Amino acid sequence: MSSTRDTYRVAVACSDELLRAAYELRHEVFYLEQGYDEDREVDSLDEVSVPLVLLRERDQAVVGVMRIVPYPVPREEVPFYTRAQIAGGLLPGRGRSEADMAQQFVAAQTTTLSGSTLTYSGGKLGRIAISRQARGQGCGTILVSAAEQWMISALRAAQRPDGVTHVETKSQLSSQKIALRFYESQNYVTQGATYLEEGQPHIFCVKPLTVYS
């Protein structure tokens, strides 16, 4: 007896339906499973992030979610939206097209020019969650790879200064210690020491990406 393995695709959550499903999955994983404060899960960074969802092809269910925050992340205090606000219909980040998000992402970049090499500050991956029913099927790898490719595509479309022949950027994230082995398998390298984030041990990880060469 043979079983058919599920297939998946990644989409940017531009519609209210997908955005709402993304927030619900985050609530399910981060609050119901992992015990994070449900009133400190959705924040104002969701207004400027690129929300990615992983859709199961056979029923179009949202089984994975991630956001890309333009880097560097704003240092000022980031306000949160309560669970009651989200359950009441508030959808931070709604009403944007993928083109809008790409434009905002590029505009938020800081750049460094060294000879003929241009380096963009990149993005920070966060709020990465996979539903229980889809775990163990490579969904995390699909999402991380899609996020990296989205950043590369957005930056490739940006205008390059004259004389630039090589463009690079980086993907960065704050990994839970329990998930570190996965990110290392995706070629992320740790930076610095372990720290607490919402009471859980995390460590910062970085991966260089080539945009154009």
UniProtKB/TrEMBL annotation:
It comes from the Eukaryota. GO terms for biological process: UDP-N-acetylglucosamine biosynthetic process. Residues 6-210 form the N-acetyltransferase domain. One of its GO terms (molecular function) is acyltransferase activity, transferring groups other than amino-acyl groups. PROSITE patterns: GNAT. This is Gnat family. It comes from Malassezia pachydermatis.
